[in-house]
Design a protein that fits this description.
15 helices; nine-stranded mixed beta sheet; 35% helix; alpha+beta; disordered N terminus; globular; 2 domains
Length: 427
């Protein structure tokens, strides 16, 4: 059916971003806005980091996104009870009218990122509107779904990118010239500012511009998969038809792309190296982390390479045996996918050489911070596998082909801080 002349159908082919009444902390009820924020739930992976956030303020958002209790059901009940209590006490309050939110992050080096937070119509990958580029782990989706069901809330926005440089970008820039709703600087040195967009003309301009756009999931694949699951559980129309997102126009504000590293529990570096003998070239580097990463970047220019750590030194793996790749890498995928470091790591090294299940927390952890990965490997006697980041254009090209990368292949950033604006479905 030709729907080109139908306004609703035209809208359906693109991004449908809608205003909502954001839940925000009352600054008079908390120590500071900075003290109640947190990185996204999947970045807070270290117990000391979780304790630090919990200690920063009794109302820190981590008590909602990562509740601590003995069982999964107890954790979700705890989060729901906490959210209800904070609403009853006025710690969190809903803005008086629906709006979209312009969000700005700036670091100490002058890097600036701006985007729009709103509730986006949830769409299947087959619609070609929101493109995933990574696989997800079902247990994580189940965990996030249980949390969202219990709280009836989207507690933190996921990060999407699009390329537009149109009316939406103009509204963002114009809004950022006004006094913000809030401004705070977190301990990582990032300044955060938030504005509400409620003017009907500005809202219409953003929505019309985005209606012709396509977005890439930069960070939050598990939360998007959770949105899809929850939408399927509730007959439409319902509030679950939409999910909280931050949309960043990378034509104006290119994101940084960093690697996500692997920590292999119970695999000493000596054993990891013995297993790859003859399958990779191995060079032992007795240098600081910064120089080891430079060597990794140099090796990455010519092929697959990895940096192993955990025994007080660094070991550069490159030049994989072509026969190993031929027998372990699926041949029915695009060449760009077959040549990814993450593909080689998961298909060749994890599955066939080291025999490590990629979805078992008892065997493998995914950590964004490079130094933390190395430190934990040295402390626990495991192996850190440090990765080189993938270029954004490679990610986008594969996503447009409908090809997903191995899970946790990329880390786009900066990621939105959790705790600045939430969405409760009843508002």
């Amino acid at each position: 059916m030709n729907t080109a002349g139908h306004p609703e159908a035209t809208q359906r082919r693109g991004l449908e971003l809608t205003p909502f009444r954001g839940l925000r902390y009352d600054p008079d009820r908390v120590g500071s806005l900075a003290s109640v924020t947190s990185p996204p739930y999947d970045v807070v992976v270290r117990p000391d980091g979780l304790h630090h956030l919990q200690s920063a303020d009794p109302y820190n958002i981590v008590r909602l996104i990562l509740p601590q209790a003995g069982t999964p059901s107890a954790r979700t009940e705890q989060a729901a009870d906490t959210l209800r209590r904070w609403l009853d006490e006025g710690v969190l309050t809903a803005d008086p009218e629906p709006g979209l939110y312009v969000y700005e992050q700036q670091d100490g080096d002058g890097m600036l990122q701006r985007g729009v937070i709103g509730t986006l119509r949830v769409s299947e990958p087959a619609e070609g509107v929101v493109l995933p580029h990574e696989d997800v782990m079902p247990p994580v989706v189940a965990d996030r779904a249980a949390l969202m069901r219990a709280t009836r809330a989207n507690l933190e926005p996921l990060l999407l990118t699009y390329r537009g440089d149109g009316t939406a970008a103009e509204v963002v820039e114009r809004t950022a010239e006004k006094p913000p709703l809030l401004a705070t600087t977190t301990e990582d040195g990032f300044r955060h500012r938030l504005w509400s967009v409620t003017d009907p003309q500005d809202l219409a301009g953003i929505q019309t511009d985005l209606a012709g756009r396509q977005a890439l999931i930069a960070d939050g694949h598990h939360r998007w998969a959770t949105y899809l699951r929850l939408r399927a559980e509730h007959p439409s129309p319902s509030p679950w038809d939409y999910g909280l997102v931050l949309l960043v126009d990378t034509a104006r504000y290119p994101l940084r792309v960093r690697a996500i590293h692997r920590l292999l529990h119970g695999l000493p570096v000596a054993d990891a190296l013995a297993a790859v003998e003859g399958l990779f070239r191995v060079r032992h580097l007795d240098v600081p982390l910064s120089k080891a990463l430079t060597a990794l970047a140099d090796a990455a220019r010519t092929g697959n390479s990895f940096l192993l750590a955990g025994d007080g030194a660094f070991h550069l793996l490159d030049r994989p045996d072509p026969d190993l790749l031929a027998r372990t890498i699926p041949a029915d995928r695009p060449a760009a996918w077959r040549s990814l470091d993450a593909t080689v790591l998961h298909a060749a090294l994890l599955e066939h050489v080291w025999r490590i299940p990629e979805d078992s927390p008892a065997h493998i952890a995914y950590i964004h911070d490079t130094a933390a990965t190395v430190e934990k490997a040295e402390r626990d006697g495991g192996t850190a596998v440090l990765m080189h980041p993938v270029r954004e254009e490679v990610v986008r090209d594969l996503a447009q082909q409908g090809v997903t990368m191995p899970r946790k292949s990329t880390s786009f950033g900066p990621k939105p801080a959790s705790g600045l604006v939430l969405r409760a479905l009843e508002f």
